[in-house]
Amino acid sequence: MARAALAVARAAERAAGPGPGPGLGLGPGRARLVLLPPAGEPAERGGRAGGGSAPVEPGRVAPERGRPAEWREAVAAAAGALQAGGLVAVPTDTVYGVACLAQDSAAVRSIYSLKGRNGSKPLAICLGDVERLYRYCHVNVPDQLLRDLLPGPVTLVLERSEELNKDLNPFTSLVGVRIPDHPFMRDLARACSGPLALTSANISSQGSTLTVLEFQDLWPQLSLVVDGGPIGDIQSPECRLGSTVVDLSVSGKFSIIRPGCALTPTVEILKKKYGLVPESS
């Protein structure tokens, strides 16, 4: 772990710009690197499949008793960078991602530019809790179904509501929703007043990344890089599959858009517990 941190620090020094600033400079006086400490035990426990987490008032950080000071500072730094219109690299429960405020049209355009992404490919939104999903989506499945899959490595595609930024995926009436099963991402999403736009930290068509060093070419264009350490086994191709993407916008049916890393348990829940059928049926 110490070797990995040293390698990241040296890479940051190589990429650093001329101006001093807080943290490790990753670009011309703009970006910073934050090393994420262990989360500790939060006051409330989230988790998969109806973990019973209490709703948190949007725009406020969730209760963080038990989180170390460095953790809270990392959340505050990331939230501040996002509120300023920046792009932030973040660890998730699947691969590293890049986030911005979904309601900030200029920031959304910056993500597409960063990735060299086709403008017709949609971005998912990221939230901290299932309760907030109802503001941005029209839900036609049982609440417990949502809680059986979220938080977790699944993206649920639903009908978007009028609350969502019209410049985000203007070509579709649908939106993918992520609630990663990662304490930093949930704390960060709760610290922001609106949803995050979230995509993988890589150039489009290139492989997903499991360490911050794997996307260091993007660092100069980011406001902040949050280093949560390696995600999973970096030697395993299965760890780079990303989330399972499932369309639930048609009542009583589901459609797998991307198999991802959680296909089998997701389909089992949808079919056996809730009686949904594949849309092609």
From TrEMBL:
The keyword Disulfide bond does not apply. Signal peptide: none annotated. This is Threonylcarbamoyl-AMP synthase. It comes from Taeniopygia guttata. The lineage of its organism: Eukaryota, Metazoa, Chordata, Craniata, Vertebrata. Interacts with RSC1A1. Residues 72-262 form the YrdC-like domain. Belongs to the SUA5 family. The keyword Cell membrane applies. The gene is EPHA10. GO terms for molecular function: double-stranded RNA binding; L-threonylcarbamoyladenylate synthase; tRNA binding.
